[in-house]
Amino acid sequence: MPCHDAQFRGFTPKQISRRWFFEQCGVGLGAVALSELFGATAKAETAPADPLAPKPPQFPAKAKNVIFLFMAGAPSHLELFDYKPQLAKYNGTNPPPELLKGYRAAFINPNSKLLGPKFKFAKYGQSGAELSELLPNLATIVDDIAIVKGMYTDAFNHAPGQLLMNTGTMQFGRPSMGAWVTYGLGSESRDLPAFVVFSSGKKGPSGGDSCWGSGFLPTVYQGVQFRSAGDPVLYLSNPAGIDNQVQRDSLDSIRRLNQMRLGATGDPEIATRINSFEMAFRMQSSAPELMDISKESKATLDMYGAEPGKPSFANDCLLARRLVERGVRFVQLYHEAWDQHSQLVKDITQNCHDTDRAAAALIRDLKQRGLLDHTLVVWGGEFGRTPMMQGGDDGRDHHPNAFTMWMAGGGIKPGITLGETDDLGFNVVKDKVHVHDLHATMLQLLGFDHTKLTYKFQGRPFRLTDVHGEVVKELMA
Amino acid sequence: MLLRHRLLLASIPLAALLCIEAQEPKPDFSRDIQPVFEKSCYGCHGAATQSAGLRLDQRDSVIGKVVTPGDAAHSELYKRIAGLTKDARMPMGGRLAAEDIARIKSWIDAGAAWPEQTTQAPVKKHWAFIPPVRPALPAVKDAKWVRNPIDRFVLAKLETEGLQPSPEADKATLLRRLSLDLTGLPPTPAEVDAFLKDRSPHAYEKQVDRLLASPHYGEKWARQWLDGARYADSDGYEKDKPRFVWFYRDWVINAFNRNEPYNQFIIDQLAGDLEPHATQAQIVATGFLRNSMINEEGGVEPEQFRMEAMFDRIDAIGKGMLGLTVQCSQCHNHKYDPFKQVDYYRIFAYLNNSHEANVAVYTPEEDMKRAEILRRTREIEGELKRRNPDWQDRMARWEDAATHNQTEWTVIRPEVDDISTGGEKYIPQPDGSLLGQGYAPTKHRLKLTANTEMKNIAAFRLEVLTDPNLPLGGPGRSIKGTGALTEFEVEEAAASAPDKFTKVKIARATADLNMPETPLAPMFYDKTNKKRVTGPIEFAIDGKDETAWTTDAGPGLRNQPRKAVFNAAGPISNDGGTILNIYLSQKHGGWNSDDNQNNNLGRVRLSITSDASAVADPVPANVREILAIPREQRTELQNEAVFGYFRTTVPEWKDENETIAELWKGYPEGSSQLVLEERTTPRVTHRLNRGDFLQPAEVVTPGVPGFLNPLPPNAPPNRLGFAEWLVARDSPTTARAYVNRLWQAYFGIGIVETSEDFGTQGAKPSHPELLDWLAVEFMDRGWDVKAMQRLIVTSATYRQSSNVTPDLLQRDPYNRLLARGPRFRVDAEIVRDIALEASGLLNPKIGGPSVYPPAPGFLFLPPASYGPKVWNEAHDADRYRRAIYTFRFRSVPYPMLQTFDAPNGESSCVRRGRSNTPLQALTTLNEPLFMESARALAVKTMTEAGGSEDKRLAFAMRRVLARNPTAEEKTELLGLLEKERAHYSDAAHDPAQLIAGETLPKNATPPEAAAWTVVSRVLLNLDETITKE
């Protein structure tokens, strides 16, 4: 994954302005001036060429952070958001042949019988959005979100679908949207990674590590996996027998020895190394503090359904809020559990039980803390599920032609439902939104023209939306 | 306030800061403007295409149209590139550098002078597409500095720039640099001493020769190649199952150590299998092309992902061998280079004619064992023949009987019930068989439906066939190529009453292989307590899910086609035809379908007969084929094969047969390797619209892009011919691309910075003549890689000190001019290897299966990983192998390596990033193996360095940095030692945890050992430690 020309094309530690280098680093003066760098004052916290230094967007924008709740495995739009009475009516019959022309399914013969929705729907909120009985908590905040029923994608296998949703292409080796966003905006947090990833549910995402990779962007933009139990970041704790005093003593020695070497060789890369060690030390205290949700009020914990010390999607949602509060740019939560080829009723009920309350609590919590305005929350999976049945009458196959996502905050128009599918929930018939359009819209909300957030690689400028993408203006407040 | 200050500073382009004092000269069209147009505009507004009717390569369509001479502000061209109108800013999808925009503005304002002749001049061929010729060596003033021709080119440029080379680095630094560059390991103190003592004129060259001869040289340089070859030990995508391809990795290491000429090195990897008398090594080499990922998630279309793999192969050849980025042409003509989409598919056509084969491979020791078994078998058979002079008559009589009265079988071509496959794809083959591909569920019951007009159907034959695309050739899909049939069941219905199925009673079954009852191998454990077994064919009709018929005849014998016949209790007959539902229940896999645990049948063919006496032909398929050849036309080998089977039918040769069977039980298991194997029936290649395999356009034939070298005369029209073309003497990019990658490894940046792209969009070479000289020298020396390494490391350029003055740093921040030696952090693998070597833990063993050093277990389990993966942490010497041997899961990269920018093998990478992050600091500080290294270094120091602190510190420092501490460093480190000794002597701070059971030397107390561990850890965490200076 980290394969790029970053050091020489993008931001290099050596790309340091003359003034900073000579005045602050004190090359030639040995360690004297350099030591100021790490004094208690906030002077020159990071080198100006720090690739993670906060950067302004291309134009003023509301959204500054993103929380992406990635429902990996692909939730059924037909059980959750997209109520289709006609599908119920035609339950057990074959779909119209013209619908299946050129259609490929992953597992089933496309000419399988239709399967009616398995759950009851009702209208909620002032907006009157239609939701399934599986989402009672989302129903309470439905006026704060925008439901996008017209999603469609190109992929119908999980790994390619997840890559497309995360990187804008089905192929490996491209930067993820979190990487693009941190590349564009940098990070407000000095002590935590700019892009943090959690994983809950039955298994990890099909796209693996590449879902949050940096592709050809500098590796500093890669998502860092956090764990909601144990060490949140790999190798965060001191090894056995090294207490904080010894760690501090060691780091002081390392710093002084590195300063001596900087004086001897003049290589500014050493200054960056010194900086990295100091940030590592800060992260050793800031990350555990972040992860300690036991200090949250009981009301907050209850609202999410979070339990300290017990890994769950709920804990991850609460942590996502805490990360955003601390200036982390992009938080992504993977919950892989939605691939209901069979046991649809049982499993989707369980999934909603595991996620609905926390996802709704996140919106409510962000809102009451005034964070929702500048935090864009996105909920959804890699594709939808077939109106046709699989595995008896209790499962659905992968379906790229139509699915539903929802978005909130960060400049999204609340309380709307956009897009419409046909009577069977098979194709989008109104306000189609491709994955590329979703990306273009997200970048727009963050203050970027998606055609202009580019990175030159292999001789051409690349972007998250490749050569596609239209901003969905209707979604914007 | 502070934040604003930082932002401001960060947003000023570096160029602006550096150019502040310089007076910008007046822009000249040919020098300053046309190159910008060429680089950024001609792709859409040039000779080939004229978007919006505009072309910028002709004066008349520019001047007075989009350019108003003398008035940039009213020139459309300027307004569009500067983003001053509401129309899209040009160029599309990017923008010009601020200084280019400024130059174009001042060029227009100054009158937009456009010399006549440039409009006439033909478009010059891009430099990299013209084969290199050896340039003359430039004259230099300071000829004394020059050690070899490389230095002339470097010095000539320095002299034009008014710069001086740096003095030679001190000997210890130089040896450490050289050792890290050639072997990836730091020098031992003894090696440093020997070099320091050696005052002979060729002391340095002796070290170069020593290191080039080290077997670790191959490990170091193989790693760079493996990045481009996107090597990894797993399939990638969702399942990301382990694959066993380390023979390829070891082949690369050996090729470097043997110093295989680079042209042969390339030919072997692209077409080793097609070379005359291809050796196992040459076949293994084609693993280069097979390092593509494989998607076996449920429900995938295998052809779609074969296409993805094809694209990946062309990408790897482009970046890794040609030095050209060809990926764009997958979907459309290259925007900037003369690479057409059809060129892409013509190369594709060369590669499109292979099986995705998986073959058994053997180590030299295993090969000797195989030869011995074969020799012993032939010996016993010879003895049988000698003792039975009438053996030929007897064999002829047996053959007559065996070829008499064969049952007539009718192949049926059933429909596959999609749901029953559990996500596996059974792909119909021309011979009526079904080939299992894609996802392999460990338990499923395949339902096949066929219609037949046959009356009195009496028996069913199931053939389980081999296929190059199955593991080890099959006939099953387990990693050994075996499969098991849990149950064979049939239902029948009259075609006139298609809903009324009756179960067909199977009276008896026969097979050509009936192994004794054997408990299922542990790899198929399914987490139940059931006693699951495999054995004879009766197990497939006993109605039990615990028992199955197996095709596994043991090592050396298992990858052969097998057959079974199932006789119905009574004839099946329906007027107007019969519908048959045949179920092949395959439930003898393990619990985890996301791992290599399937035990499925790989390629199956079904036939029916009305012959009630039908039995499974006991004669193996290969022998049956030979029997069809007239006796007198058979070769010696074929006769031996027939005898090899015939002897097993002779009852009185029981002892000999048993002896041979016993011998074969010792047949080596070998390993597997993914390779290419040419198909006998070629595939037809189409250009694919937009690169979509569902949109084939016209048919294309193999061929090479016209703007590069022509095909060599007599090049065969296959992969071999393509490979020969790639390394032809007149290839413009192949040699340049490789010497550039060598250069990049030494100096951090290639002579062409964009080592994957020498096309028009790539970077310009910093030393074009040097690049050409090196490329020609490389070819003239017979593509001798070690010779080029020697040339580079013995140059004065390489031997310079890497210390930099502020002036020089300002002049040349990236060291493109090479007025100093290279200084940068070593690659991920070497970061680890340095710690292991310095501490004395390193296990220097070369080659073999990949190993599992410590890693956090949760990474390999859901929800961190998609499926549970096996990571059996090594607790023996494998724990301390070099990092090149660490097992690489693509979806769960080894954390330490990933943190230090190692690519994960998802696509070809010829240029790694080199980041410097807090996560790296946490790794070297806290990761278990680094901690073990610190502890081991402390113990080694206390044990071997004597009692004095000075000596100990020097010992440890020399192991890590190959030099003695300075006075200042000594004060710092001994101060730390003192402090930590006191800390761990305090009862509140138990040193036991830190020294963790290490055996301490007699004179060392635990607080002493703990303090030295802290000091060692500090040494291992220094910038210098992981840096090549």
SSE topology:
The complex is a heterodimer of chains A (477) and B (1029).
Chain A: H1 6-9, H2 18-25, E1 65-70, H3 77-80, H4 85-89, E2 121-124, E3 129-132, H5 136-140, E4 145-152, H6 158-167, H7 177-185, E5 195-201, E6 224-225, H8 244-265, H9 269-291, H10 298-304, H11 313-325, E7 330-336, H12 344-368, E8 375-380, E9 384-389, E10 396-399, E11 403-408, E12 416-418, E13 420-421, E14 428-430, E15 433-434, H13 435-445, E16 454-457, E17 460-463
Parallel strand pairs in A: 1-7, 1-8, 4-12, 4-15, 5-6, 5-7
Antiparallel strand pairs in A: 2-3, 4-11, 8-11, 9-10, 13-14, 16-17
Helix pairs in contact in A: 8-9, 11-12
Chain B: H1 2-11, H2 14-19, H3 29-40, H4 42-45, H5 76-82, H6 98-109, H7 116-120, H8 149-161, H9 171-183, H10 189-197, H11 203-213, H12 215-228, H13 246-258, H14 262-271, H15 280-285, H16 287-290, H17 302-322, H18 341-351, E1 354-361, H19 364-387, H20 391-402, E2 410-412, E3 415-416, E4 425-428, E5 434-437, E6 444-452, E7 457-464, E8 484-485, E9 487-494, E10 502-503, E11 506-511, E12 518-519, E13 533-535, E14 547-550, E15 562-572, E16 578-586, E17 603-609, H21 621-627, H22 636-646, H23 654-665, E18 671-678, E19 685-688, E20 696-700, H24 719-726, H25 734-747, H26 768-780, H27 785-793, H28 806-811, E21 824-825, H29 828-839, H30 895-899, H31 918-926, H32 928-944, H33 949-961, H34 967-985, H35 992-995, H36 1006-1020, E22 1027-1028
